């Protein structure tokens, strides 16, 4: 199914792109994605083509506004039963363990935890 999108100039050098994803099975309403592109109209057209191609081929990643902290926490909860208990110990050791990397008090989480995943 070929999808279409819309480009609207917001201000000089800034364009709003809107395109539809599939319909929401619960409500039956269309899911519309809006994003902004800075640059020329050709840049906006190129980005819209790339996004529509990603939707058509199933490679589109819906932004859930998930932070790195949240993703690591979910990942650790998922793998907790698959790794040795010592691997989940947050105490520092010469080699970083899974939990030391993803523990909320670790430097990795404190420096990147507020970033959004793309």
Structure description:
This protein is of the alpha+beta class and 118 residues long. It folds into two domains: 5-57, no CATH class; 68-112, no CATH class. Helices cover 34% and strands 22% of the residues. It has four helices and three strands; from the N terminus they run βββαααα. It has helices spanning 41-57, 68-79, 98-102, 107-112; strands at residues 5-11, 14-23, 30-38. A three-stranded antiparallel sheet has the order 1-2-3, with helices on one face. A hairpin with a 2-residue loop joins strand 1 and strand 2. The model has no long low-confidence stretch (mean pLDDT 76).
Indicate the mean pLDDT: 76
Give the strand order, joined by hyphens, for the main sheet: 1-2-3
Low-pLDDT stretches are none
Total count of helical runs of at least 4 residues = 4
Query: Tell me, what's the shape?
Result: elongated
Helix content: 25-40%
Sketch the major β-sheet.
3 strands, antiparallel
Radius of gyration: 20 Å
- How many domains make up the 3D coordinates? 2
Structural class: alpha+beta
N-to-C order of helices and strands: EEEHHHH
Strand percentage? 15-25%
Q: How far apart are the termini?
A: 25 Å
How many distinct beta strands? 3
